[in-house]
Amino acid sequence: MSNGSTSAGSPAPSRNGSAPHAAPRAPEEGAPLAPAPVAGHRVAALVPALDCARTIADVVRGAAQHCEHVLVVDDGSTDATARLAQAAGAEVIRHEANRGKGAALRSGLVRLLAEGFTHAFSVDGDGQHLSSEMQGMIDASRSAPDALVLGARRIAPEQEVAPIKRFGNDFANWWVSLAAGRDFRDTQTGFRIYPIAAILNLGVQAERYEFESEVLILAARRGIGIETRGVAVFYPPPAERISHYDPWLDTCRIIVTVVSFLVRLRT
Ligand SMILES: Nc1nc2c(ncn2[C@@H]2O[C@H](COP(=O)(O)OP(=O)(O)OP(=O)(O)O)[C@@H](O)[C@H]2O)c(=O)[nH]1
Ligand SMILES: [Mg+2]
């Protein structure tokens, strides 16, 4: 992780007077040392977070074991997500009002590029992605630095995922693969390593969960390499799970993104 000095520059205060960006703090004593950067391949973790107070500190500390810096984009959370992320050693950008996971990822990519990072490792803030799976992804990215690396979730049969969610994932996989012109196992995974400059150049418009589908379609169509690695994920018991994904509305948004892309392709 970066040292305690702010790498975010001197942010202008927001309209309500509060600082929009919180500088990173030094990691807590006893925290593992951050890995040394590799020349030309600087990976920062990018964590979109909406009301993740219960999990965010562990996510930040886990990511910091593998990435030299952790950036959390707190997207209008009403809980202590931002404070806890900062206390765990992350740099925090805050959107005062919720703008969506895609908007948060875009803000984070722009910020990390400005800070000199070449790659952003997106990790969900709700603890579903395992830090033990990060190193394999980073190694894959080092071997193919121009590629987008996808962590395809291996969901074990005993991990309870609502049938509607499974259906939504399968449905989205089919549509996104069609639009991308090649098959993908898991188009909805949020566990990805983005080559930042190339991804920002795609001009992705989506603001919510469709962001990840649009990135994949445009990246495939523009010839950006895409590597996939199977990864284990953690699914807490349904009662403890916090999801912001609306299986109907968000799946519809993905379909609209895909269909409008296909229509543009034909005209
Ligand atoms: N910044 C930001 N993050 C979001 C927003 N919506 C969701 N997230 C984060 O994106 C990650 C994934 O969101 P989830 O709601 O868990 O979606 P999911 O993992 O695809 O769905 P589940 O399998 O049901 O958990 C989590 O870390 C959320 O905190 C948002 O509007 N803004
Ligand atoms: Mg989740």
What does this structure look like?
By secondary structure, this protein is an alpha/beta fold. The protein has a single domain, classed as Spore Coat Polysaccharide Biosynthesis Protein SpsA, Chain A, CATH 3.90.550.10. The chain is 35% helix and 16% strand. It has helices at 56-64, 81-87, 101-114, 134-143, 163-180, 196-200, 210-221, 249-266, and strands at 21-22, 43-49, 69-75, 91-95, 119-122, 148-154, 192-195, 226-232. It has an eight-stranded mixed β-sheet with strand order 1-4-3-2-5-7-6-8, sandwiched between helices. Strand 2 (43-49), helix 1 (56-64) and strand 3 (69-75) form a beta-alpha-beta unit. The longest helix has 18 residues, at 163-180. It is globular. Mean pLDDT is 86; it is low at 1-27. The protein binds guanosine-5'-triphosphate and magnesium ion. Guanosine-5'-triphosphate (GTP) is lined by residues 48-50, 52, 73, 75, 98, 100-101, 104, 124-126, 128, 165, 190, 243-245.
Structure in a nutshell:
The longest helix has 18 residues, at 163-180. Helix content is 35%, strand content 16%. The protein has helices at 56-64, 81-87, 101-114, 134-143, 163-180, 196-200, 210-221, 249-266; strands at residues 21-22, 43-49, 69-75, 91-95, 119-122, 148-154, 192-195, 226-232.
